[in-house]
Design goal:
There is one protein chain. By secondary structure, this protein is an alpha+beta fold. It contains 8 helices and 5 strands. The radius of gyration is 35 Å and the shape is elongated. The N and C termini lie far apart (111 Å).
Length: 203
Amino acid sequence: MKGFLRKLELPEFVKDTRLTASLIIVLVLSLLGAIIGMLISPLFGLAMVLLFILTVIFAVYGIYVLAGNTNNYAANLSYRIKRGEQEAMIKMPLGIMLYDKDRQIQWINPYLQMYLHDKDIIGSSISSVDKELAKYIDDAIKSNSKQNKIIKWGDRKFEMVVQDDLGVVYLLDITRYANIEEKYKQERLAIGLIFIDNYDELS
């Protein structure tokens, strides 16, 4: 019985006062109909009592089914969100590195591993793996800035975010966009005015 009542408990976001009020109104009207039916005719009253009992049964069953469906939906949605987060961390084109207080690498996703030439680096310090990257991370931590930094790491450019309180580094490869920006700057039209002193006398 306790297990059945536990299943009847609806999640908080489904507990709506309008839903409860509607259910109570239906049950009260069914009960009044049964009472009035008994006053008019015992046979009719008996039919109304049966109708009231059926209404209660259907209401309880409806709540039971709604609670089960809602719990299943919430559990499925929660699983999909967590699975999506895991897939994003592993497969998305964003380098992610986790490190501890001693600046030792605890985990990196496959995308960042590709830039480190598939070396086995878990448990190694960041400086021993790549001194250039370690310097950028140290500078970002010392500056204590939450803003993104543009760095040139190797032959590529990255947008870097360091969250030292969480021990996380994010690296987004923006080489392509940086090259487009550089090409745009080089190909911009420039207009100048040259004034030559005594040009009229020379001509």
